[in-house]
Amino acid sequence: MLFKLALTGMKSRMRDYFVLFFGLLVASSVFYMFESLALNKEFLLSNPTIGSVIVVFRIGTVLLSLITVVYIFYANTFLMNMRQKSYALLMMLGAKVSKIATMIFIETLTIGFFSTLVGGIFGVGLTSIVQQLLMKRLNIQVSNFSSWNTHAFMVTILFFIFLFFIVAIMNALSLIHQPILQLLKQEETPVRVKNNPFLFILEAITGFILLLISGYLFLNIAKYQIFGLTVSVFTVPLGTYFLFHSTVIAVLRLLKRLSNYSSKGLNNFTLGQLNFRIRDYTKILAMVTIIFALALGAITVGVSFKQAVTTMTKETASYDLVLNHSEKINEAKIQALEPVSEGTYHFKEDSQKIYYNASEWNEMPLKVLEKTGINTTATKVQYTGDDFLSTPELIWQIKRFELTSQNAKESLMLPANEFAALDLSEGQLSLIEVNDFEQNIPLIQALVEENQANNPEIKGLEDINAFSQKYYVYELFNSLFSGFEFMGFFLGISFLTMLASCLMFKILSSAADDQKRYEMLAKIGAPQTLLKRAIHKEIAILFLLPGIVGMLHVLFGLQMFTEFMRNPYSGVPLAFGIFLTLYFIYYLLTDHLYSRIVFQKN
User: Where would I find the ABC3 transporter permease C-terminal domain in this sequence (predicted)?
Assistant: First the structure.
């Protein structure tokens, strides 16, 4: 019987539950996707190349878990506030408090289990799609991958069920400890707020100072590092809260006093609507702003990291292709690259030393990248054979292109006649530049693999001189940053869904009460077009406030990534465009649902 009543209650609140259900579906599906990629052991063992990507998805799981906890507890509070009146009526009709608490427990667990189960199933399909996109992005072939992972599915179910179990207990306890009259009249009970001008000004100044401190720490993150990040974790949320709690109230009061603005249309009514609930809105606006900044920041950083692959690869390796013992490779394969520069250098070696011909290095000087800092552009410096003869210690610049066995030997630069006089085995070292590295990746990859086959001591990224081979560098950065790109995008979407759902909960929870106010305005002659315009404006303000402040947080917060990439703002236009489009769609949906509730016919 209790289960039937719980299902009936869920059915009556299906529209409200749908918002929570959709947010949980997205969160659980992305959670499963991250876990399935990180826990697929056979896949990881057979594809060691993407090990760095898995670390990124593991980080994503932790971040998603934290924000999901906040979302579930916050959204559940709104649902309880909306349902408590109906529970109080059942108690007045004779239902025992323990039975109502049990019903709430069942209802909460049911919606949690069902949404997680459906989200996990969606996650299986999402994992399959992401796997294909990720592998295409990484330009590698994988084996032993399955979108279904029993371990990951169980972890997802257990994590979300545990959260809802805690929430269900909290819901039941909160109902037991509240009197029936308070449950019935809580929405109608006026909240009296004491306005203390001194505290109001102090709060505004405090919020402004906290945000200034955050901005200063972000702009000087290289100096303060962990200390700056730790302090910002506290100053940003508190400063944001004080900003809304003081500045927004002050602006609303100022606008109400400006008769030229407040007297137009229903502006005075809209300002009154916002002012009436502003202190309650302050909490959710501050929370939505922080989640907005996290979501937008995740997408922006992901896009910026991916765009940094080409730049960082170009500034790490001076040549597009290094071929050891290139005499073993068909020259036609090299010419297929249409190289813009091809330096072929002969060397002779014995058990102790390796010798180079200075005349060849004079004809085609060695190009070396030199960089003074991470935010500076690398410049190419050339060294000729004469430079190596006059300054023997410069020979280490050549050793970075040698094999591991050659690195252990002493390298010497000799004049052409002395080199020719040596009666030793001879080999070739080829250093090649092409017009466009990324367009030639398939051909370069084939030659790198052949070079590795000709020289078995080369161990790829594990090789001592791996960073002189641009393809290895590209492979490393591409795998790592593609992981960040995917993680940032899906975390951003998940965060956006949650923050928009919370904001929708808050706005829609007051729609039923606002219906009476708009009905009254209609009876005194206000046209429906004017009423709808007032609704559009009110909801737009509630969406714009966290959006604008959140974007400012992101623009300052990106400074912390200047230590890892030269231009962390490169992904801003694309990321902001995608995110704001989705955010605008949520605004339109909220506006539509709110208007439908307010203007529904009795």
Answer: 61-172
Residue 532 CA to residue 537 CA, distance in Å, equals 9
Neighbours of 505 (CB within 10 A): 23
Q: Compute the distance between CA of residue 412 and CA of residue 419 in angstroms, rounded to an integer.
A: 10
The predicted structure's pLDDT at residue 179? 60
Beta partners for 188? none
| CA–CA gap between residue 443 and residue 398 (Å, rounded) | 25
How far apart are alpha carbons 451 and 275 in whole angstroms? 72
Chain length of the chain: 602
Q: pLDDT tens digits, residue range 166-183?
A: 877 777 676 666 665 555
Count other C-beta atoms under 10 Å from residue 218's C-beta.
Answer: 21
Residue 333 neighbours by CB distance under 10 Å: 13
pLDDT tens digit sequence for 384-414: 989 888 888 888 888 888 888 888 889 999 9
DSSP 567: -
- Highest mean pLDDT (candidates 33-47, 67-81, 151-165): 151-165
Asked whether the predicted pLDDT for residue 602 surpasses 50, the reply is: no
Dist CA 529 CA 363 (whole Å): 80
User: What residues contact residue 584 under an 8 Å CB cut-off, 6+ apart?
Assistant: none
- Whether the per-residue pLDDT at 206 is higher than 70: the answer is yes
Which neighbouring-strand residues pair with 561? none
Gap between the Cα atoms of 497 and 491, Å rounded? 10
